[in-house]
Design goal:
The chain is an alpha/beta fold. A hairpin with a 2-residue loop joins β1 and β2. The mean pLDDT is 93. It binds FE2/S2 (inorganic) cluster. The site of FE2/S2 (inorganic) cluster (FES) has 12 residues, from loops.
């Protein structure tokens, strides 16, 4: 079922540059924030007001939700023209936000412990999830990795919600190696649900590990998107059900590993 979404003129409360092309922005957008759930995303018009360049909105994960204040945070990486324009905006600027979009993480699960596995910018949607799970009284363990320490600019924020394990491929921060090198059986264990977001190779490895152990796992997928609402078929992925091609923007971005072929 498709939930209600809004197109709202949001006002930027702050924008910080975190280094290495990463930005953290808070937007006052009370209608979107009021309905947003962890794992959903927003579609943002990144160009100047009233401009149609770039024509397409950019899909960006919701990083943190503050329903009381009516704001959301986004944490994004400059990867092209749209995000470059977004990075030039400042506090007080308005931006057109469409959302919240997509199917977020499944929250009402029985497992007592949640292991959040994030690689690179895949860390972005997991903070709102950690916040919500901690509120529900779950034990939260966040295992976050990046190529180097610069990619873990937002990792510290997860400490407010549980245990944090950091890993970098070059060993410049936390444990050396990939997140999957540090997902030991003691971390996964019984009565655990795993939520993962990051590069496809990481998701495949996490799905394989959790599958072997019989631990349920949800993954948040990335895809190139145009419409963001299930109309253009530009973001399909491959289902485990024969002949089915779910849309990442509408049927996801979050799927159970049993639902999609990674
Ligand atoms: Fe158009 Fe998903 S982006 S269907």
């Amino acid at each position: 079922m498709y939930k209600k979404m809004y197109i709202e003129e949001g006002k930027i409360s702050y924008q910080y540059y975190l280094g290495n092309g990463q930005f953290l922005m808070e937007v006052f957008s009370p209608q979107v924030a009021g309905r947003a759930l962890p794992g959903q995303f927003v579609h943002i018009a990144c160009g100047p007001a009233l401009s149609t360049d770039p024509l397409l909105r950019r899909p960006i994960s919701i990083h943190r939700i503050n329903k009381e204040q009516g704001s959301i945070e986004i944490y994004y990486l400059v990867v092209g023209k749209g995000t470059e324009l977004l990075g030039m905006k400042s506090a007080g600027d308005n931006i057109s936000i469409m959302g919240p979009l997509g199917r977020g993480f499944a929250l009402e699960q029985k497992a007592k412990k949640a292991v959040l596995v994030g690689g690179g910018m895949g860390i972005a949607p997991l903070l709102a999830l950690a916040q919500e799970l901690a509120k529900e009284g779950k034990e939260v363990v966040s295992v976050l990795g990046a190529a180097s320490g610069a990619g873990l600019a937002r990792a510290g924020a997860f400490l407010a919600y549980g245990k944090l394990i950091e890993a970098t491929e070059d060993g410049s921060r936390g444990l050396k190696g990939r997140v999957t090198d540090h997902l030991e059986a003691s971390i996964l264990g019984n009565d655990t649900l795993v939520y993962a977001c990051g590069p496809l190779a990481m998701l495949r490895a996490v799905a394989e590990m959790t599958g072997k152990m019989g631990v349920p796992c949800q993954v948040s997928l990335e895809a190139r998107m145009a419409c963001g609402v299930g109309a253009c078929l530009g973001c399909t992925c491959v289902s485990t059900a024969e002949g089915a091609y779910p849309k990442v923007c509408k049927d996801g971005p979050v799927f159970w590993t049993s639902e999609v072929s990674l």
